[in-house]
Specification:
There is one protein chain. The protein is of the alpha/beta class. The protein has helices at 46-55, 71-86, 99-111, 126-131; strands at residues 2-3, 6-7, 11-14, 17-20, 29-30, 39-43, 61-64, 90-93, 117-118. A five-stranded mixed beta sheet has the order 5-7-6-8-9, sandwiched between helices.
Length: 138
């Protein structure tokens, strides 16, 4: 996870376990080129970003808020969305296809300085689409 100062934290994950490491802060995960990409895709998790990129190859920049964004992450996302709008980048909301995804999309749209569009995976999330063989349909 990164914030305006650089790396601010990292997650520990295992089967059925996910937690921020002691002393870590939840920030944003993002791909290289995010600050110059003409198209930015916002997803819930890094694996969804990577799965979306595999399904739809191209020059997009990716950012993940790691599920349920807090006040700190919303501040970082607001800054990112403002910078994207200033440079004319298109921002796509690509969160999960569920009620939580609907809420995240509404939250992102509310903090964005310009209208955002949303695309939904056919299944629950982009990783499920990729694992489910929807790559050939994309």
């Amino acid at each position: 996870h990164r914030d305006r100062g650089g790396m601010c934290g990292y997650e520990m994950r295992n089967s059925g376990f996910r937690s921020m490491c002691a002393g870590s802060l939840k920030g944003l995960w993002y791909s290289n080129g995010l600050n110059s990409a003409d198209r930015i895709v916002v997803a819930e998790s890094p694996i969804d970003c990577l799965s979306h990129a595999a399904l739809f190859p191209g020059d997009s920049g990716y950012v993940s808020f790691g599920g349920c964004p807090g006040k700190r992450q919303l501040d970082l996302l607001t800054g990112l969305l403002n910078k994207a709008a200033d440079r004319g980048a298109t921002v796509i909301i690509a969160v999960d296809n569920d009620s939580a995804g609907d809420q995240y999309a509404a939250t992102l749209s509310a903090i964005a300085p310009t209208p955002l569009s949303r695309i939904k995976p056919s299944l629950k999330d982009w990783n499920a689409d990729l694992a489910g063989g929807l790559r050939d349909a994309a």
